[in-house]
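Translate sequence into structure tokens.
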Amino acid sequence: MHILHRRALMLGLAALPAAAAFRSATAQQPAPAPQAPATGPHSLPQLPYGFDANEAAIDARTMELHWRFHHGAQVQNLNNALRGQDELARLPLDELLGALSRAPDNLRSAIRNNAGGHANHTMFWEIMGGRGGEPTGPLLEAINRDLGGLGDFRNRFNQASMGVFGSGWAFVTVTREGTLAITTRPNQDSPLMDGQRVLLGNDVWEHAYYLRYQNRRAEYVGNWWNVLDWQKIAARYEAARAGTLRV
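Result follows.
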């Protein structure tokens, strides 16, 4: 009996490296495609990584629920609201958010909420999937110039995230000249509605973190920095200065 237990233990230990390698490999695989094709002008973007790629801050189940069902529903609801609104349906997402005053009164809230959510989440998935660390180059120079350096920037952004009452987002906006500023918006509102561009943003709706953190938003906000991809954020910064950053 002892020999059998010892053999089982040795087999289990031998399997650990393979299991770890499997987890590492699958984390790099793209997420599954949406279950249904888009039925309108807007579509749910494919995640550029697996659901478990952000485990340092966000568990895989939350990632899947958040992307597939929350973001997916916003895309479908937006397409539904735009049905029969040919002029608005032809607009790119950022231009649509800047033209909300042109939406019919009975559709404006639905378009505002769902188009804002679509834009916010599209940005959110793009800037994650990394290993944290620190920015470099022109982006770091802008952070030092406009936001008081990395330490002050993180503290101020965390405070902004914690200061959102209820549901909403904390953002860093960027101008064509490369100037950065921290701002917040309630619900699914976006700086795009005011003609601004977003460098990065964190979702502080409870559905973004509740499975792992429950009411501990501060812990989630602190861990979120560990999954940022600063190369992608730097690319967004350069796109903003070139005038090509959309959402």
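Note: DSSP finds ten helices and three strands in the chain.
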